[in-house]
Amino acid sequence: SFAEYVSTHVTARYTRWSDAWTSFNTVEKTWAYRQDQLSSTHPIAADIPDVQAVEVNFDGITYAKGASVLKQLAAYVGIEQFLRAMQVYFRRYEYGNTTLADLLGVLSEESGRDLSRWSQLWLETAGVNALHPEFTLDESGRYASFAIVQSPAEPGGGPLRDHRLAVGLYRSDGTKLVRTERVELDVSGARTEVPELVGVAQPELLLVNDEDLTYAKVRLDERSLATVIARLGDIDDPLPRTLCWGAAWDMTRDAEMSATDFVQLVLRNIGQETDAWGISRIPAYAASAVHNFSAPEHREALELEWERGLRRLIDEAAPGSDSQLTFVRSYASAAHTTAALGDLVGLLDGSLVIDGLAVDQDLRWVLVTGLARAGRYGEAEIAAESERDNTITGHENAAAARAAQPLAEAKATAWDAAVLSSNTPNETQRSIVLAFAQHGQDEVLAPYLDKYLEAAEDMWERLGTHKASVALEYIFPKPLASQALLDRVDSWLESSSANPAAKRYVREGRADVARFLAGQARDAQQ
What is the pTM of this model? Predict the structure, then answer.
């Protein structure tokens, strides 16, 4: 946790890459928030009774949440006091071993804050808090009252914590949204009044946890959410943009924002995004919204809107840019109409040229896999591409393309290689399981729920920790999301004698499916 935090702090403060915390939020904190809402979550300072516990706890809690909480600690005691305390700590205990109490003792000395309660709430308990603004407006549109309300993000999701955070108010300045006011304060308990904002005019965008000082899920008020959907790209600073992206995705995962609204948010604003990690990750969230969180009755229309929107984004992207490449890769995964699949073939055979786009071998495999997933390419085309790229990586990509096909024989072969055989190389196995459970292939995936649960009974012992972890996490047939699936998994969890580590991954897959169903119900209200 400490190395993860310090590496990002040093990068942001002492190198030219000033947006390190933006990327940290996009990648690490998204990972942490998801992990912390699963039944397998645990405190940062976890008990490790055996080697098995070590193997499964190198996760989003140990790394990403730990680093996020250290950033909050630095904000809580003051960043300069934190750095000064670290200097004292390392000098005092050099060449020796320490305990958590040693670290917190030095921090308390240098900051004047008693950290015993802080440690108990943040390091010794699991779960994430949710923060949202609660306010009233007077007749002129100014805040008559303002408070920050805190709650567990999940039922039974841990205690309410003390947070040091900032609230940012963003208003129009020409065509841009800029921060015009900022209030920094301590939030504690279920409700914290913010008298500094009483009498202040309501902005277009209100952002709780501005600057991303604390570790908490943030909710946007109705006006702010409308602003984000319409104008997120008008915020010049990438960190508040990233916080808004994250808040919107959290709300989608928690069935508080419809999948349709999230996809429209992405299509309207991703073209203006400049953060490299945001450009690469956010379209994947939108694809999940399309295929997993959308109501079945809306899905066909939303899939078409997503495909067409990506094609438009490709045309509008700067030639040779990261955005252009990401949009093409996303388009390959979304392509399902005759026109879109024809574009993929054209990019491969050279009949379609997009200015600035280099169709290298990596991209070729993305295109081939997209065509294989849609049933447009089969064994002949995959084998030909594998011969063209006769490398280990090429063979791994070919295995993924074969696994992606909507054919019962292809799924059976892929299953044998990834789940039943212990001889498949690690990276080949990983390529297969990541490509196996494709959206829109319910008929050929249907037998694999029971096959998955049967294999989970002894997979940990049969394949070993690494391969079993990869297979159990990624080959769970999540596209088959239904109440019947949840019931079947619940019955298995209750009766199975499988290794507890294996059951952890099954529970996590079940949790994702439960979220999908809640999101689908929310999207049905559109």
Answer: 0.91
